[in-house]
Amino acid sequence: EVQKLNQQLEEKNGEIEQMINQPPYEKEREILRLQKTLAEREKAQATSDVLCRSLTDETHQLQRKLASTAEMCQHLAKCLEEKQRKEKGSSDDQIPTERSNQVFLQLLCLLDNESSLQALICNLQEENRMLKQKVAHV
């Protein structure tokens, strides 16, 4: 490992000597090329930062929506249970009323929305992870 590091050090020293021995215009050209590369990387980094912040904000918004949807589902489920208990208390053979059917349908729609939101959040988290990897790579 020490030999490998010494070899790399010799290569770098060779590159430095080569740069020193270059005519001034080639040095300037290399400096300009490196500055341009640096500017491109900084621009890409800034873009990635903005995208990451945007995705983070959107993820937080979706998580809040998901939490409120879950609360609504729980509330509707409780309402449905209470309604069914009341109906069973008055008559065991009674058919659920139109209102309880509506509540049940609303609950089903909200459950579908919740699974869609969960899938969207998973997709955004994966995209966020990939962007973070790209940022780390840059």
Question: How would you describe this structure to a colleague?
Answer:
Keywords: Coiled coil. This is TNIP2 protein. This protein is mostly helical. It has one domain. It is built from three helices and no strands. The longest helix is centred in the middle third of the chain and has 67 residues.
Helix amount: over 70%
Domains (count): 1
Gyration radius (Cα, Å) is 31 Å
Structural class: mainly alpha
Gross morphology is: rod-shaped
Low-confidence stretches: 92-96
Number of helical elements: 3
Number of strands: 0
Strand content: under 5%
Quick check: average pLDDT? 80
Q: What is the chain-wise order of helices and strands?
A: HHH
Biggest sheet statistics: none
- The N- to C-terminal Cα distance equals 27 Å
Compile the SSE list and pairings:
Layout: H1 2-21, H2 24-90, H3 98-137
Helix pairs in contact: 2-3
Tag the structure with descriptive keywords.
mainly alpha; 138 residues
Question: Care to give the gist of this entry?
Answer:
Residues 1-15 have a biased composition (Basic and acidic residues). The protein is an all-alpha fold and 138 residues long. The chain has helices at 2-21, 24-90, 98-137.
